[in-house]
Design a protein that fits this description.
Blueprint lengths: L13 E5 L2 E6 L2 E4 L2 H10 L3 E2 L2 H7 L8 E2 H8 L9 H8 L10 H16 L9 H10 L5 H4 L13 H4 L19 H12 L7 H10 L13 E7 L5 H16 L3 E5 L2 H14 L3 H7 E3 L9 H11 L3 H13 L15 H4 L4 H5 L19 H11 L2 E5 H10 L9 E4 L5 H8 L2 E4 H12 L12 H4 L1 H6 L1 H14 L7 H6 L5 H16 L5 H4 L3 E4 L5 H33 L7 H29 L9 E10 L2 E11 L3 H9 L4 E6 L8 H8 L9 E5 L5 H4 E6 L7 H15 L3 E4 L3 H17 L4 E3 L7 H10 L4 E4 L1 H4 L11 E4 L9 H9 L4 H18 L9 E5 L17 E5 L1 H12 L22
Parallel strand pairs: 4-5, 6-15, 6-16, 7-9, 7-10, 8-9, 10-15, 17-22, 17-23, 18-20, 18-21, 19-20, 21-22
Antiparallel strand pairs: 1-2, 2-3, 11-14, 12-13, 13-14
Helix pairs in contact: 3-5, 4-5, 6-15, 9-10, 9-11, 10-11, 14-15, 19-20, 24-28, 26-28, 28-29, 33-34, 33-39, 37-38
The protein binds iron/sulfur cluster.
The site of iron/sulfur cluster (SF4) has 13 residues, from helix 14 and helix 18.
Length: 918
């Protein structure tokens, strides 16, 4: 890009608000101003901003609007990555970054002028921009009057997005994989080829690849996959370690290996590793495919709806920007793909979700965009790929209820394998809640009064089948009638006011009443979720259960009957059932099938109410709330051991499974790892492999246990965080187990740190998605980030940007009905169970600190009461010191302050060494 241009052409002022202060830049220069003055200025004339919701929050002005540079960037450069900060924007625009906060507002004006200049010329994403700008102008997009007149009208009319997107090709189904093996030596040789290094350099990685090859041996017994559990310390390079045998097997067998992760961060890293495997982009596209759940992808039918009036106001602007992106995206993935994670956060929360296929309303071949659909394209590409990069939830959904039975994978690699248990727990659980039932009602009935768009109910989706087959028509009509008795919009308010409508709303009202009645003292006032065991239900709840079960039964029967009729229709196909109609009926059978299963599970749940508890399950009542606001209520059921259904649906049908992680046995031995991966439910034991990290942890890291920060004192906790962050001069990841405390600490120290030039961001505070927060943190070595569970695991920030991890205390598991039941059932007793959970969490948190050989860092635990027995969660040999805060801060300053250490290369995309994605 060209260097910055004079910005005199833009008359608008620019505003920059941070925790350090507020500045306005206009034609007369830049001045520091009060928040009130800034708000007045922004109301008078549209101002140039960077991230309007964030700026609004910092000014105490919820709904600030203006000329948001991020929206302009998304319009001009769809599907391009940018860290949404002044420095990040400067980098992608090829401009010099502002030096210091007072210079930012002036920089924003210059950046705006630069981008406007781009709009007036030719740039790679110019196609489609003119028409989009005209539409956006008509919608009163603040940039409209500035941008629309500058973009040259194309000489020829541009093709409408839906015509321009490529179509996927239907291909013959892939034959089953051949029976082949991969020897340890072959896996090692392939690894050497991939890394291009001498074998001696990475003995741990070679041993790992050899062990991983065991998961690709031919299966010896029915229902018993060749299973390998491999724990590889950080830095081994396990990614390439397993990709080596996986790639070899896929080539020889002609089958696909599904590599499954838990976090999006690792999924992204794996896609990057694939570049090493297949440097040629065309070959890579054919052989490596990333798959996510359908709810992640843009649904073109929903987008078309939105563009044609289904969305209004700001949501309509988002639809236009999403359409710009849709023309340039690699895969249509709106969550973690090439749509900037920050873009949806600039708009109303529900608008982005409404562009995906969240509710399973897809009409498959009945959709005019079926042949261009991103979801269908990804499904077809993965059917012929060598490597499919997926996630645990999708693997389980596909195994349990996938439509792609013929292409079901037989070889899996579960990376981040320590999360298999949690993923199975969520997947195989049952939730009979208001949100779930209302979703089902919408799926059956379609949009009700006031609904916009072309979303359609079951009757419309299956109108041809229903009119052709009398029984199917009756089943649809019965299902529609029964769905009318499910909860509808406003149910929660009605439940709270004691005037529920229909049997399900009555049930939920009783659930809610009992959860409040049995809440622990103080829990009600705290404003967070409430729960109670489902033991000895109230007579009112028991009375409500029967009519609710009957109402569900009245829906279940027709759903099952409809599924059967549709199957019969396929078996004895009439003339009108051509290829596309068949695909649509097949899709309907699959979605009716799993929804009927869900309804059956709800009925079973209600049937047991008041009877003896089933020892395989844990049931409880819950009211979901955040900040005192209720958003759902219902009955929940989880498997006491969720690896049982995991073993049945995923592991037993597979031929080979590798489960791997850096912390597979953390907090226990192999027996624990076997139990948590589901291996103990298989007929033969798995192979175990362990390779310690090659890092010199004792030299690279130190654990400091701070002994003088009193528990339960928010001021002291905030003071400790501030002092430690100052000592490290930023570069700190602060981990919390409670959002409440995280917010309290952030509120107390963010301004103070900002005055020192140390920005502090926080999950649950800043209106920015977690992925972008990590991008910003990675990009700025002075920045620090506070967060909860999602940041404890799966955050990969190698180098100097992350040099200090501070945990607010021992991460004990949150007391809950489910936890209490599992604790009671745990082998070795409840204390050992809790200890295992804590060790695993501390090991994961510590794992964020040292990502490369050159990394140096401190891990601080703000808890005098941490029992010594838990300190073996850290790698052997790492020094652990118990000391007061003042000494800890001095140690941190000495060890990791930038002045005393050699800064390492920084920035997004800093390549990991070969295979170091962990
Ligand atoms: S095929 Fe389904 S998911 Fe794809 S665009 Fe059409 S309705 Fe949306």
């Amino acid at each position: 890009m060209t260097p910055s241009l004079p910005h005199a052409a833009l008359p608008h002022p620019a505003i920059w608000a941070s925790h350090a202060g507020t500045w306005i830049a206009d034609e007369d220069g830049t001045r520091a101003v009060s928040r009130g003055e800034t708000v007045r200025a922004a109301a008078d004339t549209p101002a140039i901003l960077l991230n309007a919701p964030l700026t609004g929050q910092r000014l105490g002005q919820g709904d600030l609007s203006g000329l948001d540079l991020l929206e302009l960037f998304a319009f001009l450069f769809p599907a391009r990555f940018a860290v949404p900060t002044p420095a990040g924007l400067a980098r992608v625009l090829g401009m010099a970054p502002p030096e210091g906060e007072p210079a930012v507002a002036g920089f924003l004006r210059a950046a705006a002028a630069h981008m406007i200049e781009v709009a007036g010329g030719d740039w790679p994403e110019r196609a489609g921009a003119w028409s989009a700008a005209q539409s956006l102008h008509r919608m009163r997009w603040p940039w409209g009057p500035v941008v629309a007149p500058r973009i040259r009208k194309p000489a020829e009319a541009e093709r409408w997005l839906f015509a321009a997107l490529p179509e996927w090709e239907e291909e013959a189904p892939r034959p089953p994989p051949l029976t082949v093996s991969v020897t340890a030596e072959e896996a090692e040789a392939r690894l050497d080829r991939l890394t291009g290094r001498h074998a001696e350099a990475r003995p741990g990685q070679r041993a790992y690849a050899a062990a991983a090859a065991g998961a690709f041996a031919p299966r010896q017994r029915r229902d018993t996959p060749e299973m390998v559990l491999a724990e590889a310390g950080t830095g081994i390079g396990k990614t390439l370690g397993y990709l080596a045998p996986a790639g070899l097997w896929a080539e020889r067998a002609g089958g696909a290996v599904w590599v499954s992760t838990y976090t999006k961060a690792l999924q992204r890293q794996l896609s990057a590793e694939a570049e090493r495997l297949f440097p040629d982009p065309a070959e890579r596209r054919a052989r490596v495919v990333t798959r996510k759940g359908r709810e992640n992808y843009l649904c073109l039918l929903n987008l078309e709806d939105a563009l044609q009036g289904g969305f209004a106001g700001r949501a309509a602007v988002l639809a236009q920007l999403a359409a710009r992106w849709a023309a340039y995206t690699a895969d249509g993935d709106m969550v973690g793909g090439d749509l900037p994670g920050w873009l949806p956060t600039l708009f109303r929360r529900n608008a982005p979700a409404a562009l995906t296929d969240r509710r399973g309303e897809c009409v498959y071949a009945g959709c005019p965009h079926y042949r261009k659909c991103f979801i269908e394209r990804a499904a077809r590409a993965s059917a012929k790929a060598d490597l499919v990069i997926a996630n645990h939830a999708l693997v389980m959904v596909n195994a349990a209820r996938g439509r792609e039975a013929s292409t079901r994978p037989s070889r899996y690699v579960f990376d981040e394998g320590h999360h298999l248990y949690d993923a199975a727990d969520a997947m195989f659980g049952v939730a009979l809640t208001g949100a779930e039932t209302i979703e089902l009602r919408r799926w059956v009935l379609g949009p009700e009064a006031g609904g916009r768009g072309r979303r359609r109910g079951l009757a419309a989706r299956l109108s041809d089948a229903a009119s052709y087959d009398e029984e199917a028509g009756r089943a649809v009509a019965d299902a529609v009638e029964a769905a009318g008795r499910l909860p509808s919009d406003g149910w929660l308010g009605r439940a709270a006011e004691g005037r529920p409508f229909g049997p399900l709303e009555t049930l939920l009202a009783e659930v809610r009443a009992l959860a409040y009645a049995r809440a622990e003292p103080g829990a009600d006032e705290a404003g967070y979720g409430l729960e109670a065991a489902l033991a000895e239900p109230s007579p009112e709840l028991l009375d409500a259960a029967e009519p609710a079960a009957e109402a569900l039964d009245a829906l279940h029967g027709p759903m099952v009957a409809l599924g059967r009729r549709l199957e019969a229709l396929l078996a004895d196909a009439p003339d009108w059932l051509d290829g596309p109609a068949r695909a649509r009926v097949e899709g309907a059978i699959a979605s009716i099938g799993w929804r009927a299963e869900t309804v059956a599970a709800w009925i079973a749940l209600l049937a047991r109410l008041g009877g003896p508890a089933d020892p395989d399950f844990v049931d409880w009542l819950a009211v979901d709330r955040s900040d005192g606001r209720e958003w759902d209520a219902g009955i929940h059921r989880r498997w006491l051991d969720p690896t049982r259904p995991l073993a049945e649906t995923v592991l037993k049908p597979a031929h080979g499974v590798l489960v791997t992680s850096a912390t597979l046995t953390a907090g226990g031995d192999w027996a624990v790892a076997d139990a948590r991966a589901g291996a103990s439910h298989l007929a033969a034991p798995p192979v175990h492999f362990r390779s310690p990290s090659p890092f010199d942890y004792p030299a690279q890291a130190e654990v400091l246990v701070v002994t003088d920060v009193p528990r339960g004192d928010p001021a002291a906790l905030a003071g400790a965080y501030a002092r430690l962050i100052l000592a490290a001069r930023g570069g700190t990841l602060g981990l919390f187990t409670a959002i409440r405390r995280l917010r309290a600490v952030h509120a107390r120290i963010a301004d103070r740190l900002a005055q020192e030039g140390l920005p502090l961001m926080a999950q649950h505070v800043d209106p920015i998605d977690t992925g972008t927060l990590v991008d910003i943190f990675r990009d700025d070595p002075a920045a620090s980030l506070l967060g909860t569970d999602a940041l404890r695991d799966g955050v990969d920030v190698p180098g100097h940007s992350l040099r200090l991890v501070v945990m607010e205390g021992v991460p004990w598991p949150k007391p809950s009905v489910l936890h209490a039941a599992r604790r009671l059932a745990a082998e070795g007793g409840g204390k050992a169970y809790d200890d295992r959970v804590v060790r695993a969490r501390m090991a994961q948190a510590f794992g964020r600190l040292i990502r490369r050989r050159e990394d140096r860092g401190c891990f601080v635990l703000l808890s005098a009461a941490v029992p010594s027995r838990l300190l073996d969660a850290f790698p052997p040999g790492v020094g652990v010191a118990r000391l007061p805060l003042a000494e800890a801060a001095a140690r941190v300053a000495e060890r990791v302050s930038p002045a005393l250490s050699t800064p390492l290369p920084l920035g997004h995309g800093t390549p990991l060494p070969a295979g170091d994605a962990e």
